[in-house]
UniProtKB/TrEMBL annotation:
It comes from the Bacteria. Gene3D superfamilies: NAD(P)-binding Rossmann-like Domain (3.40.50.720). It comes from Rhodomicrobium vannielii (strain ATCC 17100 / DSM 162 / LMG 4299 / NCIMB 10020 / ATH 3.1.1). Keywords: Oxidoreductase. This is Short-chain dehydrogenase/reductase SDR. One of its GO terms (molecular function) is oxidoreductase activity. InterPro entries: NAD(P)-bd_dom_sf, SDR_fam.
Amino acid sequence: MRTPLNRKEKRPVPSQAGRTAIVTGASSGIGLYTALGLAKAGAKVILVCRSQARGEDAKRLIARQSGNEPDLVLADFASLKSVHNAAKRIADGYNEIHILVNNVGAFAPIRELTVDGYETTFAVNHLAPFLFTNTLIPTLAGSGEERRKARIVTVASNASNRASIDFGDLMASRRYSVFGAYAQSKLANVLFTVELARRLPPKPVTANCLHPGVVGTGIGNLGGVMGAAWSLLKPLVLTPEQGAENSLYVATAPEIEGKSGLYFVKERPARPNPIAEDAHAARRLWTESERLVEAALEKTHASA
């Protein structure tokens, strides 16, 4: 049984009828409940999942509980080619996208490389949503209005508060720790949001990020000592449904309409890591991310 949490009453999600929303990493955890909350509010939801079987399970659950059947798009966020192809399929298949929730995340216990040769945690948590978002910005911009802008929401973490960005070793080739890599990737999420918000005007799109709380999802199922410790902690932390509340707030709350470049904790703007307020660092990460993404896509095209 979970320990009771001192939480205020759950906020109802305002109607999203007529709006189309994308949620990445939507087959389980926070992503699943974010998608379910949007579907219950009337949005047409596009689930972006890696596994066909788990994605179909999520579709059935959401349709059953909301009466609103979502669509499913497959993408492996450890492959930038897969990410780009999925974003293009969505852009080509949907006239309007009003909400994008970058929820997918990785927490790699050992240093591993993706098919593109990039460190997995940094690639999945930052480079993939960086590419996915930028590919979809024209569609988002064509869907937003001045009175009700399209929204980009990125799930970061307060782990970012304890991080730094090592521009000389973004791939952690010299020294790797599971928590260090995760924290750096989450700080990258915040820096990306800040720089994206700076670049978006005059497009009718906002970009914000958030800390969902400490949530008992499958991301901590690492095996070994860390996995055992996570199993003991899970009953004491937020459920995935509770963890989705801040994502739903930032994606839909009318009172934050037009606000951009903010980091939300418990449905309130909070001050991020001071590094995230460094405009030079945000621009540098953007430039480096563009270089890494373009190099991976060019390599893919060359080998095709």
